[in-house]
Amino acid sequence: MTVFILRHGQTAWSESGQHTGITDIPLTPDGENQARAAGKTLAALRDGSRPALVLSSPRQRALRTAELAGLTVTEVTEDVREWDYGDYEGLTTPHIRETVPGWTVWTHPCPGGETAGQIGERAAAVVHRARATDRGVIIVGHGHFSRVFIAAWLGQPPGAGVHFGLDAAGIAVLGDERGEPQLQRLNIPPG
After folding, report:
1. Is 8 annotated in the active site?
2. Domains of the chain and CATH, by start
């Protein structure tokens, strides 16, 4: 069983480094091109296999990425939405560090937002759903959630997501080797 993760294409805020959790912004024209190219890459990686489940975040950037990538979404779910950054929504890390030196989403709280433990619980629930399927799963979502999902797949805590990069429209491939969870490919670029 294989899990494919597709991060949404570029948005104005992903390009500028602004934390984008609940804000529902569209893909840029470059992001739309990335999504189309990622669809071709994903199709080649799947080699004709049909997924049992295609989950998408409800944010338009994820849904539009799925559409442009040629995917038929099985379920739109808040379970794969991005981290809720609370008061830090729309801010960049350098801006946040002006008042909270050394801040990262991995090591510090997001006032008014979601904790690492909360996003970790969501990711673990999605891992459980994915493992219960008899065929592959595709998740179309966001950068930080996807990185926490990879950590959860590997049995690691949410903070371990810091070790996995995933660019706009990047693809990750997860699987198992003899029953052990495995990160098979990471940050495959679109096209």
Report:
1. yes
2. 3-188 (3.40.50.1240)
